[in-house]
Amino acid sequence: MDLKQKRILLTGATGGIGSALAIQLAKQGAYLILAGRKQTKLDELKNSLENASEHLCIRADLEADGIETINTACLNWKDQGIYIDIVINNAGTNTFAYLAQQTAADITRETQLNMLAPILLSQHALSWLKRPGIILNIGSTFSAIGYPGYSTYCATKAAIHRFSEALQRELTGTGIQVLYLAPRATNTKLNDQRVTELNTLLGNKTDSPEYVASEIIATLKAETKYRWLGWPEKLFVRLNQLLPSVVSSSIRKQHTRITEFASKSI
Known about the structure:
By secondary structure, the chain is an alpha/beta fold. The protein has one domain (7-262): NAD(P)-binding Rossmann-like Domain (Rossmann fold, 3-Layer(aba) Sandwich), CATH 3.40.50. It is 48% helix and 15% strand. It has ten helices and seven strands. The protein has a seven-stranded parallel beta sheet, sandwiched between helices. α8 crosses α9. Pfam families: adh_short. It comes from Photobacterium frigidiphilum. InterPro entries: NAD(P)-bd_dom_sf, Sc_DH/Rdtase_CS, SDR_fam.
């Protein structure tokens, strides 16, 4: 899809990947609707973009009533003849800790932001998304590789992977494409110092938000249904499907280190 003058709703807009993506989408000539929790950050981001006056902001807390806030705004715009061409479900969070160390609040928050919010927003979008249109869900390599310290995160991202696959098949012939892109570890504030140190120690490669943003744009333009970023992560995804014991053996060798860092205080 040509992104010029397309109206794109972006959740998690002020996060690491979100802000990098907003900058690059604006350079492509897209008109953005930036959704996030803090109005000040949204305004700062909007004003930093090319053609700032063409973009809009929605303050929406996806842990509370943010989905309804976004839906109401989009329905109102539809009544005015303003349609959304693309929805990017980018908002998310993670907690690096073993399940026994997580609080109920941690688990609930991850489930709400990573799984329920994109599912509910996608459902609402079916009533106001322009045809042809795109829903793009941002996942993770961990949606296909269960990794210690990220049990809840893996579960929520795996759910969005299968949700995207199922919805794409449901919407065959409707003019709406559902895409799924899974980055590997990305250098954002979601990863605290422990995670950064552990990735360095284990030799895990980390991508920049700008690189991930550029790959998201490439995915949108080509309308690629499913993409996994990073090597050897893409290989491990395939291996985990075919020979999970091989991946388990590799991760088992890292288990002592992972446990050490997951147990550290932030």
